[in-house]
Amino acid sequence: MGNCIETAKKSTAEIAPSELMKSPPVIKLYGPPNSFATSHIRLALQYKPVTLQFIPSDTHPNPTLIYQSDVVTGSVEDILQYLDTKFPDPPLAVANNTAASTASIWGWSGGETTPLVVWVVVLQHRSVNWHLERMVKWAEDIAARGGNARGDPSMGTPRMEMKKFGKSYSQLLQVMLEHAQMEETVLFQILESADRGLCKSANEDHATHLPIMNGIKEDIKTIGVMNAGIPDYQEALVNLTSRLKRLKENCRKHFEEEERELLPLMEATELNKPQQEKVLQQSLDIMRETHSHLFRFLMEGLQPHDAMRYFDLIKRYCDNVRVSLMLHMMVD
């Protein structure tokens, strides 16, 4: 998942799965710039192999899409279906993604009976895993260069690049902290109420990961004030890379265990639909920063069908103002 550092033209911190989806066909979209429907379609078009020309227009009450001789207007669902017909890879309409979004997870096949919060957790796992892999590759690249500049003006000097690295890691750290808090205060509480001690191992993992996560943050701060090229600088880069690899592997194993041993048991709690919706709302409320200024960061770590599936989940159970803000962060 994602791109290799060596071939990236953009900052490593900005690499996302959707980077592979861009190609020449031009689509024009007319619609009110502050419309929820217009923003939703603009988000979807980011994942299609097209070039979007968005023309803000209050004279078009509904989003209107023009491609070659086709003029398409109507609901968001109608336009997404049209886009999937014209550009089937990747499919974005949630109805077309049942197989992708309910794929087998470590031998357990989720389905319509799977509580909504389970899919939120699984998709967050995928995003965190992707970002951790990206950070490891970036750290390896810096270490291989001995901290020297890449020759990429967008990255600047070694110290400037390390600041970018630190900012990206801080964003990931915040998402991971909120994710762990959400699991401990919502998901694990539900499971523990059904069978006390069920989540003991998962809670212990969280406690083990925290010192590593904070240690990486301190390592980055230390490297940021060191002079590039000295032996201590190179040693610090190697240690940073080693810690990131350890965190990545620990998280991968932890997520696998949760998805194999804990998440399937959520079906046994037999939450009804109103209860599921309440649990999902509680989970999103706890992860407030993730679903505000860090929303773009989270979505960058998801493959297109996963990103649209995630957005479909939260748009149904978040208030419209909050969802609109998240949309604008993605498309503006």
Automatic annotation (TrEMBL):
UniProt domain Hemerythrin-like: residue ranges: 121-265
Presence of the UniProt keyword GTP-binding in the record: no
Chain segments annotated as coiled-coil in the UniProt record: 230-257
Protein's name in the database: Hemerythrin-like domain-containing protein
PANTHER family xref list: OS01G0861700 PROTEIN
Membrane-spanning ranges: none
Matches recorded under SUPFAM superfamilies: Thioredoxin-like
Organism: Castilleja foliolosa
Pfam families reported for this sequence: Hemerythrin
Keywords assigned: Coiled coil
Lineage: Eukaryota, Viridiplantae, Streptophyta, Embryophyta, Tracheophyta
